[in-house]
Design goal:
Length: 385
């Protein structure tokens, strides 16, 4: 273990000068979770959140930049033939319907935007899907333009009773991506075109998003970097200054303890929203949205449980210094981190003080596993999955 992690147990458990306060009854918290449509788990079935305290001294006040949504990577499976997926061609700019093959990277997509207006980026092809226009027009791969024209955007239609959604051109929502051969009732074997919605053969116009893998730091970081590297390479100085956030909840896990990081929404006062690596199972409090600034490459972390940005509390003193809390409404210096790969794990470093984030595994009680930006070197406690 490195020198920054090797402190004595006596040092770890000394008084922190603050009291931890539970906010409300367990029943109230469970009711709140049920109203939100979220399961109460052993990790997160806790009292309702206390009102967020006022930010500490020197808290961030900088307005947050525009935020883009990123979903994926994923397969697009067809509503009529679930073993067939939408794929970019490795040889030309056509789009094809292919038999499902998890090893084919050209069949993986990243959705950029919300469900009613998004671009479909293919990381292997390094282009976006586009509808060329007109009745039954082709779907092709193109370089992204900025601002993105409507022909390079798609939208999801309403859900059908067979459990799939029409994949529509945003430019002409009467045109849907079609998986049926124009000459038979079989899957098409030529390049994909669109077709208008009409009676009969409607399932072939519907699709579903199937995640390539379960949510993880590696998946979220890979999706953000793949899209933003493409954006910068394609648009150069014209690339927008934006923060892209992965929409799926991403768990963070201490590599040293194997415990998931929780946002402690039942703690009160200046402990509200404290991050701790202490959960053995995933629940609402163990979900985060990883975000990355396109121009700087700096990351931010948002708690999916309360929608607040994670801050490194650099005004706290003693063994409270650098404590991570999900409590900020806007992005400022304390809410920015860099990410470094460490073997198969990742290290987080506060961009404000240059210190690595540690999971304090020698603290006891409800301080166990507290995350703090305080380490000058990497050790086991500074690695996350």
């Amino acid at each position: 273990m490195n020198a920054t992690s090797a402190r004595t147990p006596e040092d770890r458990v000394r008084s922190r000068g603050r009291t931890r306060r539970r906010a409300a009854a367990v029943a109230a918290g469970t009711a709140l979770l049920c109203l939100a449509g979220l399961p109460a788990t052993s990790a997160s079935a806790a009292p309702a959140p206390a009102p967020a305290p006022a930010p500490a001294a020197a808290a961030s006040t900088t307005a947050s930049p525009w935020t883009q949504s990123v979903t994926g990577p994923m397969y697009l499976t067809n509503g009529a033939w679930s073993d067939h997926v939408l794929c970019a061609s490795a040889d030309d700019d056509n789009v094809w319907l292919k038999q499902f093959d998890a090893a084919n990277p050209y069949c993986q997509w990243i959705r950029v935007g919300v469900r009613d207006r998004f671009a479909l980026f293919n990381p292997a092809k390094k282009k976006v899907a586009s509808y060329i226009g007109g009745n039954e027009g082709a779907v092709v791969m193109q370089n992204l333009n900025n601002p993105t024209p409507w022909l390079q955007l798609f939208s999801w239609g309403g859900g059908e009773d067979w459990g799939a959604y029409a994949l529509q051109s945003f430019d002409d929502r009467g045109q849907n991506v079609d998986a049926k051969s124009p000459n038979s009732d079989n899957p098409r074997t030529d390049a994909v075109h669109t077709r208008g919605w009409r009676h009969g053969h409607q399932r072939e116009l519907t699709w579903n998003e199937l995640p390539v893998a379960a949510p993880s730091m590696a998946r979220s970081i890979g999706a953000l970097e793949a899209f933003q590297n493409y954006l910068n390479a394609t648009l150069g100085n014209a690339a927008p200054d934006e923060v892209a956030c992965v929409t799926e909840g991403t768990p963070l896990k201490s590599a040293a303890s194997g415990q998931y990081v929780s946002t402690e929404l039942a703690y009160g006062g200046d402990s509200y929203g404290m991050l701790r690596a202490r959960a053995g199972a995933l629940g609402p409090w163990e979900q985060y949205n990883l975000c990355r600034n396109n121009r700087s490459g700096v990351y931010s972390i948002r708690s999916a449980a309360n929608g607040r940005w994670v801050s490194a509390e650099l005004a706290y003193g003693g063994d409270q210094y650098g404590e991570l809390r999900a409590r900020a409404d806007v992005l400022g210096p304390w809410e920015k981190f860099t990410v470094e790969p460490v073997g198969g794990n990742y290290a987080l470093k506060s961009a404000a003080n240059g210190q690595y984030v540690s999971a304090e595994l020698a603290y006891g009680g409800d301080q166990y596993g507290e995350l703090r930006a305080r380490a000058g070197a990497l050790g086991p406690w500074e690695q996350f999955q």
